[in-house]
Design goal:
binds flavin mononucleotide; mainly beta; seven-stranded antiparallel β-sheet; Pnp Oxidase, Chain A; 4 helices
Amino acid sequence: MFYRPEDGHGLPHNPFNALITPRPIGWISTRSTDGVNNLAPYSFFNGVAYVPPQVMFSTTGDKADQDNGKDSLANIRETGEFCVNVVAAAAQDAMNVSSATLPKDVDEFAHAGLTPIECETIKCARVADAPAALECRMTQIVRLAGETNYVVFGEVVGIHMRDDCIVNGKFDATVYQPLARMGYRDYTVVKDTFELIRPDE
Ligand SMILES: Cc1cc2nc3c(=O)[nH]c(=O)nc-3n(C[C@H](O)[C@H](O)[C@H](O)COP(=O)(O)O)c2cc1C
């Protein structure tokens, strides 16, 4: 089939994000200027450059108690800082609980039963037992077409890796098994990997 998004897909559910899979989940922690920790998953997320290392995530949609966007975006606008926590398969329930739309003064670490630990380079909490965490300084917030669609870019200024995930000098995904987002309500877990050597290597 072929469809133009402006005309509609005619299917029971929007297939768009099922076509872009699997997506890594950036579990974004921030802190409001009132000192409230915030945590939420974002799967429109990726790394975008090596030197300096940079990441992006995009936030879509409004929230009743914020002016323009969600709590994560509001906090980053105020503080310029955020941390990306990597989500292990074992954290699937806590990750899901932390995605609830809650009033801005609710701390999702407490709500999801997670232990916050202070970041090294930014004034923000991270998920204590996450396999990895990327401490970021926001570089740009880009407004996209449509209502309340924004991309947040950040430079990674500090990187945590859990020691047990480093095997023979490599960060080994099979140790913690990354949780990733598919379309609809579906997820997948990375359990094995294989190598391909590039033609010019
Ligand atoms: C796995 C997963 C991925 C999500 N990805 C996104 C995303 O990429 N962009 C977005 O705006 N919301 C996304 N959401 C929804 C947000 O997590 C949800 O709106 C959350 O309440 C936002 O929290 P905040 O207001 O504290 O930032 C996702 C939810 C889940 C469960």
